[in-house]
Amino acid sequence: MYYELYIDVLFLENFMMDSLLLLAVNRILKCGRAYGRIFLGGALGSALTCLVIAVPFPAVIKLIFFHFVINSVMLAAGLAIGSIVQFVKAFILLYLSAIILGGILQMFRPYIRYVSLFYAAAAVCFFVFSKVWSAAAALFRNGREILEVTVFADGKNYPLKALWDTGNVLTDPFTGEPVNILDPKTAEEIFGPAEQIRGFRIIPYRCVSGESIMKVFRAERMCIRKDGEAWVEAPLMGIGEGPLCECGEYQMILNPGTLAQ
Asked: Name one GO biological process term (predicted).
């Protein structure tokens, strides 16, 4: 018993599936990669799949390639994920997306005679999956959303992404002003060169590990884009202890009290 395999059909089918999976992971993790790069990752993954099938590797080697190597190459080429933690998340999410998307397509495949309709069904499944995931994420976000903000300091402006977190109620205990938290690297870019000139203050705050202290600066002003533009004069900026977001989705945690100033 043998199977007749058309390598071009195999490549196109895998290219479509791999690209859809990378698009799903890119959207869910908000990596912001260009379509060209994602399709390149899908093409590379499909080409490696065809190569492993065509070459008579031992079964164990093929198993390793199919489940670890090819997926890793796809993620590296298509999404260019830097951190190990984020890569593991993307790897797991890729598998979960493949299981869900593959399961849905297997349900409809016996009823689809033409390959073009199968591809169209795959695209529809991807669209539905993305919408369902976005709806679920919004349901569990609990008052958290990403906003565009611009911080002005030393005559320069710094466009940033900020997490609007209703759970952030950090205030300066001396003035009662709300404190927005910056990622350390972003804070260094904005305030580092002029730190000695401008000066800073230290405020105490409570975190998960107990009591700690935070260095705070005062920016010239800030523009928050939420249902229009809101301008805040001389907002307080605190420096977080570590990276705020591993995937770089946002560089600031915005205190909702800032808009009430």
From this structure: asexual sporulation
Residue 48 has pLDDT above 90, yes or no: yes
Put the strands of the sheet holding 179-182 in their side by side order: 201-207, 210-218, 236-239, 179-182, 252-254, 156-165, 144-153, 221-225, 229-233
Backbone angles phi, psi at 179, to 5 degrees: -115, 125
Question: Helix (H, G, I), strand (E, B), or coil: what is residue 86?
Answer: helix
CB of 252 closer than 8 Å to CB of 244? yes
Which helix (H) or strand (E) segment is 217 a member of? strand 210-218
Q: Is 13 helix (H, G, I), strand (E, B) or coil?
A: helix
Determine the pLDDT at residue 135: 66
What is the C-alpha radius of gyration for the chain, rounded to an integer number of angstroms? 24
Report pLDDT for 33.
83
What per-residue confidence (pLDDT) applies to 44?
93
Beta-bridged to residue 239, according to DSSP, are 182
User: In the predicted model, is pLDDT for residue 3 greater than 70?
Assistant: no
Q: Which of 7, 52, 47, 44 is nearest to 22 (CA)?
A: 44
Place of tokens 């409809």: 108
Round to whole Å and give the CA distance between 153 and 160: 13
